[in-house]
Amino acid sequence: MKRLPVILASVLIALAIASPLAADNVKLTFVYWGSVNEDTAMKEAFKAFEAANPGITVEPMYIQGDISGTEYAAKLRAMAQTNTLPDLGYFRPDQFGEFAAAGYMMDLTDLVQKEGLTRDYLPQAWLKVKGRIFGAYTAAECQVMFYNKDVLKKAGVPVPPSDYRKAWTWDQFVKYCVQITTDANGKHPGDAGFDANRITTYGVSYQLWHAMLTPPLWSGGGGIVSPDGRKVLIDSPESIDVIQKIADLINKQKVMPYTNPSSTSQAGLPTPPVMLANGQLGFYITGQWELLDIAKMSFPMGIGALPIIKKPAQMYISGASVIFKSTKFPKEAWLLHKWLMTPDKTLNLYTSGLWMPTKASWYNDPADLKKWTDNAVHPAEFKTAVLDSMKIAEPIPEVRVKNYTQIINECVNPQLDKVWLGEISAAEALKKAGDLIRQQNLMQGTW
Amino acid sequence: MRNPAPVRNLSGTRRVARSLVVAGVSRPRRERFLSRYNNFWGWLFLTPVVLGLSLWVAFPLGLSLFTSFASWDLITAPVFVGFKNYIDMFVTDPLFWQSVVVTLYYTVAGVSLQVVLAFLAAILLNTRVRGVKVFRTVFYLPSLVPVIVSSALWMWLYNPQFGLFNVLLTSLGLPPQKWVFGIQTVVPSLILMSIWGIGNIIIVFLAGLQDIPKELTEAVAIDGGSAFHRFRHIILPFMTPTILYNVVIGIIGGFQTFTQPYIMTNGGPANASLFYVLHLYRQAFMFAKMGYASAMAWFVFIVTGVVSIIIFKTSSWWVFYQGETKK
Amino acid sequence: MRGSRRPSEYRLLAYVLLVGFSLFCVFPLIWLLRSSLMTSREIFTLPPRLLPAVVQWNNYLDLFQVVPFARYFFNTLLIVVLNVVGAVASNSVIGYAFARINFRGRTIMYGLCMATIMLPQTVTMIPLFIEWKLLRGINTYAPLTALAFFGNGFYIFMLHQFFKTIPVEFDEAAFVDGVNHFQIVTRIIAPMSKPALAVVAIFSFLASWNDFMGPFLYLNDQRKYTLSLGLKYLISGYSVMGQWQFLMAASVLIVLPVALLFFLTQRYFIQGLTMGGLKG
Q1: Tens digit of pLDDT for each residue in A59-94?
Q2: ∠B301-B302-B306 over CA atoms, to 5°?
Q3: Does A271 touch chain C (CB under 8 A)?
Q4: I need a surface site. Which of A184, B61, B184, C172 has the fewest CB within 10 A?
Q5: Are A185 and A258 in contact (CB under 8 A)?
Q6: What domain range includes position B296?
């Protein structure tokens, strides 16, 4: 009887040692960020992958993100330093160049070329540093204008055009926003007795972080920096004009509520989607991925073409998906990477409104289009207002241009804060921003 | 020594000495034995601290001191740059001094207000009001709330369009404020939020108040002294150590403020709430300038030390400790 | 005297001020509570409503679907218990050494311990992370609990002050009986120091309960996350809709036990601070 514990222990130990060997399992750790819904959607995708690839398990490493990605970036940086990086996953686009150049990502050029994948995907999708492919855009995201049909109807405002080429001009857009904005007594901005402190319905809410400012800047002929990372564009007269126009929405026309765009808890309360759903907001201009959450709120939602300042503009923005060079299972990681880029296999990520595909055919081919847009989540005007605009979408410079984060956070944003508050003019602020960028010698080209 | 010294307030050495005396051990042997005995036990008990200081304090400090003289992004090897980081801090970085000013503003104004208001509240509580226990709990409740939650909660209260404070103001006919969204109002708003959490300071003051020998306050009252008289000559002097304590702790804490600005304002608007540690954090994690961040960390460490020393040294002018006679 | 001779106007004024401040303290928390029982849209309607139209008790249940709070709770509890045990055990022994044993280098060591109170956490954050990597402590609870066993300047100070107020006669008597220092700590000093030890326990409980940076930096496995990570998750920038009622509900759940604990142990708390004698 005394022997029994020893025997039991040995058996348990033997089993413990043997089981990993017996399973012969490949375990891939995939790191990512996102909202609750995104987390759920990703886990579903992983399960589908596992079912199709017996012998491979996916270990989700979900890191809560914030919109600026600072914590995510810090976490991965710490992991890189201590060699504890996962196998593959999302990567902050603004840090991509730095890490790729330092050799942390797996070089995918040969794999991509061998399998002929450049044809099938959007040209912007593959991310290159010095001519070699080190990752891909996870999805194809862009800027989108949501609106509440009831709010517009009540204000007597027509539904915005859904063809991106025939969108409203800026002045038309502002006029309609004024019509929508009402105070507690039913008065509009510009009416006698309008009380700006008691507004109950706002016309528009623009997200004010750098990516959301980019399409309007481009539409007006300006920009933040040139794509080659050599020229400062933020202080050009065109850029100044655009920023002033947006700031005027807040301070002059009073059609936009001001909330701190750079707060970490970005939830700038109440969040515009909630305002939209509550009928407190007419238009909301933000990233396409918010469709996932907005579609779940029950209100009559529509999508309109972005207002045009001088010409139509659209951006291509997304996080990056990479495979880390330190992975022990490059073949399996590549399989998972490809899987997540295959819309057929991960349909729920697209039908739910979270992502837009990087595969080209899914924009033009009617059969493929139907698979992901023909549902309650995507309104009828989605194709013409959003998808077609991807034809002219330019990737925002954050991936390619060096020092982009610093330019935005140290030089541009603090000056913009004052403009949004109405304390100084856009001209003054942006000139200062441009000077700061040049002073600190931040224009160092691209990766 | 036939009659050993009285027992009151003997130090450890003397206690054991007394036992040894009682046991009849000779004097030189006693001395040697005692010091070895005490050294052994003292240092044995301190092993956790010794290990802890080496592992979790000395080594990281050393590493970060080394890093402060280097340029390191954590993914490539560190590069020695001498005093460049420090020079950048003091001369080149436009935001360094901004962060110092913001932090000083918040700390000095905040700690003063906190200490004064907490003291007042403690005095009020110490009068024979009913329900002291309930008041104490209520005052302390805010300190129990995790900072993340209170930050989100107060962000909401402070929202210019829909926040409770502005709704209250406008319903009373007063102009709404920008609170944490205005350049001049952001730090005062954060200070107001910190006042919400002075419960623990109140409790410390309350404890100190209850320590004052009642005979003294009674004596003054019997002699016909007013409440104010009582306050100025009895209560205040006796409370000076507690005040000192709260001021020092408050300043140390103030210098390290991070979570509230990080969650609520991210340093904005226009860097008006760019606290020192927030700036440091950004340099380390957003811009991967570990060397520079380490230099900043060392600077605040030294400043905190110097300020504390100054406060302690000057404290003898105004702090009165029970048990000392003061003429 | 405090009570009888004071005119009743002063008393009234005192009451008014105290009640006023109490309202200030409590009102945001009431707001927290009411929002935890509302739907996401209702929280933000204007003008703001104090009471929910329909009390959403289900928020508290749904919360567990959105975030695995029960597991986070147990994880946090484990970490907190270890921290409390470590803090009480190590700091009482260390505080005793400083208070009672006269050994060489005592002042210097005490000074060093006090100096650590002023150490900004940020400066040691990254080097500590690298250390833990070498010790293979990443993604374990070791970095979050081990440090408690090595003493903490603040608690050492508190216990040191407190121990000094315990009359020496007690150890004295024991010494004559041939008892060594360790037994004195465990059998004499500790039982007499319950208030002070309770304070240390409560403070270290609070600190580890609310700790965010630690779990964030060291825990990668979602199943090991703590409550504070769960809370941050609900505020994160992606939490665009529908999470505010959960954030409020979660906050209520997290604050309630701690508030209860404080209300019950108030006496110890105050006593501990008083005996701790902040008289220098």
Answers
A1: 988 876 666 677 788 778 878 877 788 999 999 888
A2: 120
A3: yes
A4: B184
A5: no
A6: 84-318
User: Would you call C183 an interface residue with chain B, using a CB distance cutoff of 8 Å?
Assistant: no
Mean pLDDT for all residues in chain A? 85
Whether A271 has its CB under 8 Å from any CB of chain B: the answer is: no
pLDDT in tens, A404-427: 888 888 889 888 888 888 889 999
Angle CA B148–B154–B157, to nearest 5: 150
pLDDT of residue C240: 44
| Minimum distance, in Å, between the CA of residue C227 and any CA atom of chain A | 13
Q: Is residue B12 predicted with pLDDT exceeding 60?
A: no
| Amino acid of residue C273 | L
pTM of the model: 0.80
Do B41 and B100 lie in a common domain?
Answer: no
Domain count, chain C: 2
The domain covering A23-137+318-395 belongs, at the CATH homologous superfamily level, to Periplasmic binding protein-like II (3.40.190.10)
Say if residues C59 and A296 touch (Cβ distance below 8 Å). Answer: no
Query: Among A75-89, B76-90, B240-254, C263-277, which stretch is predicted with the lowest mean pLDDT?
Result: C263-277
Neighbours of A22 (CB within 10 A): 9
User: Is the domain defined by A143-316+397-439 classed in CATH 3.40.190.10?
Assistant: yes
Q: 3-class SS at B223?
A: coil
Q: To probe the interface with C, which of A38, A42, A77, A274 has the most C CB atoms within 10 Å?
A: A274
Do C182 and C220 reside in the same domain of the chain?
A: yes
Give the distance from residue A131's alpha carbon to the nearest chain B alpha carbon, in angstroms.
22
- Whether B152 and B280 map to the same domain: the answer is yes
Evaluate the CA torsion angle B144, B147, B148, B153 in order and state its sign. Answer: positive
Tokens of A275: 């305002």
Q: Report the C-alpha gap between C153 and C155 in whole angstroms.
A: 6
Does residue B159 come out as left (phi exceeding 0), alpha (psi in the -120 to 50 range) or beta? Answer: beta
**Measured between beta carbons, which residues in chain A are less than 8 angstroms from residue C232?**
64
